Please model this.
Amino acid sequence: MSIKELLKDKLSGEELRLVRRSFEIIGNIVIVEIPDEIYHQKDLIVEAILKKHKNVKTILRKTGEVEGVYRVARYEIIYGNETETVVKEHGCRFLVDPTKVYYSVKLSGERERIARLVRDGERVLVIFAGVGPYAIVIARLANPAEVVGIELNPVAVEYFRKNVELNKVEEKVKVYEGDVKEVLPKLEGEFDRILMPSPYIAENFISAVRGKIRRGGIVHYYTFAGKEEEKEILPKRVVRLFREQGIDVELEHLRQCGHYAPYVYRYVLDLRVKS
Model:
């Protein structure tokens, strides 16, 4: 039974229309959006969520979108008090606190897809690495020589290091704290594959990967765009952005991997650097 069905005899028709159909579950924390117009009914919404999901310990109401240099959304606690949890994904475990770091269960499938593309012995770089989900899933599901993660948010870096230990991938995964533009030039050698999984700011860091991706290597570039741009406009725009920074790429694959706002979607473009 859905949340709306559980609430149909308790809310008016107009109030029921405003109840969001879906919400995100991170470990045993639920993240829900409750419009201001029905905020006075939050206790009934909480009751319905707890009836449907027995193991929930905390419910967070989203009050602001992902923003700032640390890419963290704003929340208020409407049930419980603990905001730290453990998420299980592809045989990995991630310690996270969504009020302090960015993490999305919705990208789990995309992380697995990338990991399955990694070939034996690759050297992989993840910029905007967060608490380490891409890097660690790659280390566990593939057989890379090394996975390097760079993250600016010091709290996320702390979780990243804990998660590396939790998943026993210390020999494969290296964690660096700081600004990508400052850290990356100090790293020696080139990478076979670079992930840029922050669609909010990835465009500003294209220049940083120049000289760090080998010829024939792959860049996974994430961005937002409207559905009408998907076929031709988006690929051409992204290829042009890279070429303007001296990186000649060609599109290998384009995939929609999430919904951001009405008529706006998250896309990933798999780009091969021309040899």
